[in-house]
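re: that chain from earlier
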Amino acid sequence: MKKVFVAGHRGMVGSAIVRQLEKRDDVQLVLRTRSQLNLSNQQAVADFFNTHDIDEVYLAAAKVGGIVANNTYPADFIYENLMIQCNIIHSAHKAGVNKLLFLGSSCIYPKLAEQPMLESALLTGTLEPTNEPYAVAKIAGIKLCESYSRQHQRDYRSVMPTNLYGPHDNFHPENSHVIPALLRRFHEAKLNNDPKVVAWGSGKPMREFLHVDDMAAASIHVMELEPEIYEANTEPMLSHINVGTGVDCTIKELVETVARVTGFKGEIEFDTTKPDGAPRKLMDVSRLKSLGWEYSFSLEQGLEDAYEWFLQNQHDFRQA
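^ sequence. v structure.
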């Protein structure tokens, strides 16, 4: 039985990975809360790896936030993420852990990257300014994995998810991402019998969304690929793999689907005075498909699942 450490097991992605690994009879999970193990503390992380015979690591721990948080606390985002990644990857190596999977973010790609975004777009242009410190930290995580694999022959891999949503998402009314924000807004509008909901922008930009359970399944799939298969589908200086659906939709289509899932019957209005953002953000997932993995949740199925989780846990958000 292999001992698997999931760093960040209480987050949206980490908890999804744990839910899937818990079903396995060949895995012994090793989990630590923030109060039990401060991942920003180099000595604490080193001691943890030296006292546990870990076989594999899923590095899903990160300091995350929306545009406002990234703009307000850029030093926190770059420092904490760099420390978490450096401590875990280096300590894992020193303790002899040969298999590690690092979870990045699609924000690593240039602001004006060609669509759909190929893995080769990395470091070919300027990043989106609002989350550049976070993106730089994530790029460093990819390069750490590449470098330890090259210099020390470790099997350290990286996956880059598109926009994620699902159980354990952040449904805060101001700090959440688009899907949880819309689910909550339409749910409350339905309860209040509001005649209409106003959505920002024109509704024309296109975005790609992936249910977090699909992300977890893809992460485990990539982690468990035979080394020769993984290496044959990557390159020494381009070893990360995009994870997404390869399918996008307009924000208008997303909003209408959320309204349908939540049962909101009123009018939907688009405030075209508000900014749209980038016209399109889509991942090229042909590399992942060639490795035998595809998503299972349609957008509507995924939204229904996320909304059901919100309904069961909304008491946790009432004071938010």
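The longest helix spans residues 74-94.
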